[in-house]
Amino acid sequence: MSVPILTVTLNEPREAYQPGDTLSGTYQVHAPPGGESQALEISVLWTTEGKGDEDMAVHSFERATVDETGQIAFLGPRQFSTVLPNSPLTYDGVIVKIRWCVRLRVFLARGKQLVEECPFRLGTIPAARAVLP
Q1: Across the chain, how many H-helices and E-strands are there?
Q2: CA distances in angstroms from 66 to 58, 75, 97, 116, listed in the order given
Q3: For 99-110, what is the mean pLDDT?
Q4: d(CA 126, CA 124)
Q5: pTM as predicted
């Protein structure tokens, strides 16, 4: 069985995007003919990591599935675009971090998933530093 290859690229890769900027790019699923891909989702989202509960919120979301003939309707490069929100800004704290990314998920038969992420920064908050005694 051949596994689909996922790609996500940003149209204007840069060190950081600002709130209100348009984030756009291309995604593609390189799936073999007759593959087992059932659906895909493209999301722009943020997550937290660090101490405490991890949070996540989706800023934009699009889902495509196989059509009524069973053909995969999402082969070939596709575009995404969204205007970035005012917050939360990317933050590299000591206790908590906020990360943004474009996430492409492909759902395969039997409940399997493939994920490709393209991280980016929203805002230009400098990284926090630990204060040592």
Answers
A1: 0, 8
A2: 23, 10, 36, 20
A3: 92
A4: 6
A5: 0.88
Tell me, what amino acid is at 124? Answer: T
When comparing pLDDT for 16 and 75, which is higher?
16
Q: Are 65 and 115 in contact (CB under 8 A)?
A: no
One-letter amino acid at 114 equals L
According to DSSP, the β-strands at 91-92 and 96-108 are antiparallel
Amino acid making up residue 129: R
What lies within 8 Å, CB to CB, of 75 at 6+ separation is: 29, 31
Q: What share of the chain is helix, strand, coil (3-state, %, to 5)?
A: 0, 55, 45
pLDDT tens-digit readout, 46-73 = 999 999 899 999 999 999 887 776 666 6
> What is the chain's mean pLDDT, rounded?
89
